[in-house]
Amino acid sequence: MASESDDEFVTLLCTNPNAAEDTETFISTTDIHNWELSAILRCQTVKIQAHRVRLVEQSSYFHGLLSGSFCESNLSCVSIQWNMEVFINVLKCVYGCKVDITSKTFLSLFEAALYFGVESLLLTCKTWFSEASSTKGPGLLEIQVDDLIHIWNFGLEHDASNLCEMHLADALLVWLTANTERLEPLSKAEDDCTGILNQLRISLLPLWFAAGKRRSCYFTELAEKSMETIFRLLKIPPADSIGIFDDGDLDHLRIRLTEYSKKVNLSGCPQITSVILLLSLLPNSYCVDFMLRKSIRQSLINLERLSANRDQCGSGILHGLPPILSFEGVEEVDISKCPRLHLESTIEIFLKSFPSLRKLRATHLLNFKTTTLHKLMLKCPRISEVDLTIDITPLIPAQVSVISSSPVIVPPLTNKSCFVGNNFLGMASYHSQPSVSNITRLILEGRSDISDTGISNLICRCSKLHSILVCDTSFGINSIQALCSGITSFGPAASDLEKRCSDTLAFKLQTLHIGGCMGVDERSLFDLMSQTQALVSLCLRGTHVVDDALYHFPGSSLEILDISNTMVSGDALAYIVNGNPALKCLNARGCKNLIHQGSNTSGTELSSSYSCRDLYTVLGKKCMLEEIAFGWGFSWLSLLALRPAIMSLRAISVGLGGSLGEDALRLLPTTCPMLESLILCFQVISDAIIINFMRSLRHLQALSLCYCLGDVSTSSFKNSIANLRKLRLERVTPQMTNNDLVVLTQNCASLVEFSLVGCRLLNSDSLRLISQGWPGLISVHLEDCGEVTATGVSYLFNCRALEDILLRHNGPGIPSSFILDAASKMPMLRQLALDLCDACEGDFDIPNDGNRYLLSIVKIARCKFQRSTNIYFQETHRRPVHKDTLVLVWNAQNLNSTVVKERI
Which pLDDT value is given to residue 342? Predict the structure, then answer.
């Protein structure tokens, strides 16, 4: 092998003051796999020859030191002031060697990984801690109470995310559960652990997390206190959210932030207000001094009154307050599902306190209008990623037949309002700004309230855009033209910028998700696809895409592709797969043309041709798949062809038109042992198959069995599957009883989403069992389930974190006030589906904009009774038949009331 020049190496000088011998040794990383650690640590001085390029590539510390402008960048020897044993392990990780982590070494390695910026070691540490704190394996038992306390203290000093508190609570609970017997004689150890739990700021926990921990024997009391505090804050006006703690300690209302914090995650915390956020950014001294505290409280009350007044734009909200702290390390903030935050005020706070903010997630907030986005772009110019996803409207034109529709306009605001409609270009102040947004990733999924013109104008102002996710919006021809046009700018330097940037945005796109956007025709899709050279992730679900568009796709870097419910053929899909060997996730459910021969109508000569039968063979040979979804034409033979590519598969979905058969389903856990999500629709299954799933797929988090045939009994679910989070059993377990429900709550204790259809033996006690067994549910669907709602639904209100409810044909015991009660008692509820057949008073009261909270979609189906065709049993055999569905959809501006024929 050719010798390497000296400038390719750098010498790392390490000293060990506690060494047993006053000696010096020289070692090289070329022989790192053979290093004897004990011998190295006996020496007081160790010189390590390491590859300069390797260090620069694997460590941000050495990248800055050896390739920057520091004087050390030209030196051949660099002194390392760090614990020698720990640093040697850092080097081992840099060179791909295995590093053994224990509860004793975790913190030292984690801190070193942070300091030297070694991402691979950080990932190793996080993986170890995640496995040690979330499993019941032998590794968990090695974590001692003292270790947990040290980890806790380190977390307080170096907290990188507000979620650390929630994750640490989870880790402590798992550890306590696993060590119950060992802790019983150690009262001091129990006191220490209890003290740690009491340090959690339970007022700031996400609602779903607190609700779900009410079953934990160690966290029950704290969870109940957390829920009580959260709802106490929710019941009072935001302006008094500080006042109720006049004489108390406000630390429990302060979000943990340090100079190391990089991410602030408040998602799912409906109790958070602008006041609480601002309180967390004031120096501690201001909250201790009585007079200062009184003055601040009044200023904060004024802020909340300003925030509550929709006539105000939020400017100057910090006037009269002491200077707030700045956390320059914070790059990402998540305020999703935080409806009590006043967004104008919050943006002002971000501007002052998070000057390095790059990413903002604000999903499921209908009050986050495009005018708010405009202000965010202007006031926080470093913002590069924005996620404004909301729930998808059920009123998809291609799927429903509208009988009548009547928008209910929200009363107009006064002339003082800064909101002038949801038109991004409707403001003169915007045109006066010469700057172009730095946004590179924009997510507007579900935002049907923004027009195609609005989206296209927004695209034109994002010259650095490389990812756009706009599924189920008005994205259309104008938006495609904006992507395919040359990049332009605004202001005096426009001509220079145009000369430098001749490429189109489409050419640079890495992510394009336009699923469900029916305003895009075949020709426009063809033009767009032919220009997308760099795509990594592409979603064309339910669009008018045809084979020609895929045949003219020039990219070779696709990792994610969704062409579900399109007319794409197997030939065209095989062509794409062959040219994109990095493909990991493929969704082709609902593609009936996969079993037909494709076509290339443009007449362009292709380099090669493929047949439908080649698709799975090409996938099996070319790709290493993580997620797949198929329907039409998918069979046991297809799975066999895919076998080389699916050993690491995490998710599989087989829908209508696919037929795996018993042999394939029996071997699925062996073929795909890492499965986390399994969805089977219209398949033939048996008890033996389900039992095999439950016993073998230990990583399974989501299981859906829908409209499947076969000999299935409830005994199939008597095996514990602790990691399962989502369970759908629709028309597969008709014999389920309340006793079976009890078994499910014991064996699947971690469920947050639960759906049952066709379980007609259930009765009014079932809701009690569901709510007691899974108090942390965020989604529950019960349809055609006997008499579940015959005597009322009061037990359901114990699931305070529910976001999605469907109750249909379960008994006429639902009161007319249920929608209003659910919205007020379940502050996270966004979607609700009912049937008038279950209304004990014949109808349901509809909320107005002021008392709907987060509720954005309500569906109320209506039935008519159809007489039996048998004339002898007309009176006793009258059955309900669907008539129509009333759909209420709230968006950023108004309420739309629509009646459709379909039962949605």
Answer: 84
Q: What is the 3-state secondary structure of 626-683?
A: CEEEECCCCEHHHHHHHHHHCCCCCEEEECCCCECHHHHHHHHHHHCCCCCEEEEECC
DSSP SS3 for 230: helix
| Predicted local confidence at residue 337, as pLDDT | 95
Predicted confidence at residue 243, as pLDDT, reads 57
Alpha-carbon span 406 to 384, nearest angstrom: 38
d(CA 566, CA 568): 6
DSSP letter for 519, please: B
- β-pair type (359-361, 77-80): unpaired
Q: How far apart are alpha carbons 141 and 157 in whole angstroms?
A: 26
Q: How far apart are CA 333 and CA 802, in angstroms?
A: 23
How far apart are alpha carbons 568 and 550 in whole angstroms? 8
Residue partners of 429: CB distance under 8 A and separation at least 6: none
3-class DSSP state of 341:
coil
Share of the chain residues as helix, strand and coil, in percent rounded to the nearest 5:
40, 15, 45
CB 443, CB 511: distance < 8 Å:
no
The Cα 425–Cα 460 span in angstroms is: 11
Global pTM reads: 0.80
332-334 and 43-51 beta bridge pairing: unpaired
Q: Which two tokens stand for residue 17?
A: 């003051």
Cα separations (Å) of 639 from 400, 635, 668, 683, 699? 35, 6, 9, 15, 21
Question: What's the rounded mean pLDDT across residues 820-829?
Answer: 94
Q: Give the tens place of pLDDT for each residue, 586-611.
A: 999 999 998 865 555 544 444 445 55
| CA distance to 261, 322, 353, per residue, from 257 (Å) | 6, 18, 11
Residue-wise burial string across 25-48, b where 16 or more C-beta atoms lie within 10 A, e elsewhere: eebebeebeebeeeebbebbebeb
Strand, helix or coil for residue 753: strand
Q: How many Cα neighbours within 13 Å face the side chain of 155?
A: 23
359: β partners: 332, 385
Residue type, 803: E
Mean pLDDT of the 658-666 span: 91
Report the 10 Å Cβ neighbour count for 263. 17
Phi, psi of 661 (to 5 degrees): 85, 165
10 Å CB burial of residue 1 (0-12, 13-18, 19+) is: exposed
pLDDT tens across 251-273, in order?
778 888 888 788 899 999 999 98
Residues 704, 679: Cα–Cα separation, whole Å: 5
Burial class (CB in 10 A: 0-12, 13-18, 19+), 468: buried
- For residues 514-527, average pLDDT: 93
SS3 77: strand
Please give the Cα distance from 569 to 593 (Å, whole number).
Answer: 5
Tokens linked to 723:
């990691």
Helix axes 145-157, 106-116, angle to 10 degrees: 20
pLDDT at residue 859 in the model: 97
Count Cα atoms within 13 angstroms, Cβ side, for 674: 9
The per-residue pLDDT for range 284-300, each reduced to its tens digit, is 766 666 666 666 666 66
DSSP characters for 767-783?
Answer: HHHHHHH-TT-SEEEEE
**What is the predicted pLDDT for the residue at 801?**
96
In whole angstroms, what is the distance from residue 506 CA to residue 861 CA?
42
The angle that helices 145-157 and 187-198 make with each other, rounded to 10 degrees, is 20
CB atoms within 10 A of CB 125: 23
- Amino acid at site 108: S
Longest dimension (CA), the chain: 106
Task: Specify the pLDDT at position 489.
Answer: 40
